[in-house]
Amino acid sequence: MKKWRRVLAMAWAVAAFSTPVLAAYPEKPIRLIVPFSPGGGGDVQGRLIAASVGARLHQPIVVENRAGAGGNIGTTYVAHAEPDGYTLLLATAATVINPTVWAHPGFDAHKDLVAVAGWSTSPLLILANPAVPVHNLHELVDYAHSQPGKLSYASGGIGIITDVEMAMLDQNQQLKLLSVPYPGQAPAVTAVVGGYVGLISDSVASGLPFVKGDKLRALAVTSPARIPSLPDVPTVTEQGYPELARSAWYGLVAPAGTPPAVLKVLSDAVSAALDQPETRQRLANVGAIPFRQDYVAFQKFMDTEGQTWAPVVVRANLHVK
Where are the transmembrane segments (predicted)? Predict the structure, then answer.
């Protein structure tokens, strides 16, 4: 009897002390690690999350860019952070692609990270410097075949979805494009705008202003239908390249071991943020679509994405030892 009384007393103590702690979360600012350089599509989405979700939590979310190795540096940092809900990662397709691309990425997406919530999706654009004499994918394929080994594309990081998109186009159409690496998507786009490299794939979120400003030419969009912001740009599917119909996605993940109660607080805050008309308008302004997934559904989605992309990466011969 005394033993059971001690057990009950301990259980009561744990409940009594843990409930206020969880109820108070978050008690201080939260760091959101964006594993990419400032100015790219991921950075844009990360800052939208920080502003919108932070307002729901009544605590600031501070964006910290930790770029490098296709997103591995920032991801590894979060994977080994304290699982207390105060260090989060902006998750993208690279989060689940990189373990297949890199022999030693520094993290195991299944063991070291746990899903928090989905945030948005954004179709991709296939873009060219205006000096490249092509206006659609058919013209690009013909031009590349006539100039084997002379046309190049900028890569913001091996394994990120925009890099995979261009690698798939190159391999599937046997274009013999040269991949030019840059330390992030933003400098890669800058190189194409400057005419140092001819082609790039970028999210609508970060590529749209350059198209509107006539700095880059959009050859195709990867969405199922043409997008309102670029109604004259045909989709990859209507041009006969349905295998390129991929979209970037964004969400939040946390270090494995983060308490489910904390995950729920964060997940609910993301959902509440996506309910706000101003948030949805901000997403629309950068060509993104709300992607509402709670922490359970988003975990399943990420697991499926990892299985989907693995054979694509192998076929595209993307691998870093």
Answer: none
Burial class (CB in 10 A: 0-12, 13-18, 19+), 49: buried
For residue 191, tell me if it sits in a domain: yes
DSSP state of 234: P
State the pairing for strand pair 87-91/152-155.
Answer: unpaired
Q: Is the pLDDT of residue 104 over 80?
A: yes
298-320 per-position pLDDT tens digit: 999 999 998 888 888 887 777 78
Q: What is the CATH number of the domain that holds 165?
A: 3.40.190.10
Residue 236 within any structural domain of the chain:
yes
Sign of CA dihedral 227, 126, 206, 215: negative
Report the DSSP beta bridge partners of residue 251.
Answer: 91, 118
**In DSSP terms, which residues pair with 200 in a beta bridge?**
127
Q: How far apart are CA 166 and CA 218, in angstroms?
A: 14
Read out DSSP for 134-201?
A: -SSHHHHHHHHHHSTTT-EEEESSTTSHHHHHHHHHHHHHT--PEEEE-SSHHHHHHHHHTTSSSEEE
Task: Please check whether residue 198 lies inside any domain of the structure.
Answer: yes
Tell me if 75 sits within 8 A of 98, measured CB to CB.
yes
Question: Parallel, antiparallel, or unpaired: how do β-strands 87-91 and 30-34 relate?
Answer: parallel
**Any idea what the CATH number is for the domain that residue 255 is in?**
3.40.190.150
Instruction: Give 225-257 pLDDT, tens digit per residue.
Output: 999 889 999 999 999 999 999 899 999 999 999
Alpha carbon distances (Å) from 321 to 14, 170, 318? 47, 22, 10
Given the structure tokens 């946390």, which residue do they identify?
254
Please give the average per-residue pLDDT across 122-144, as a whole number.
Answer: 98
Domain boundary, last residue among 244, 268, 300:
244
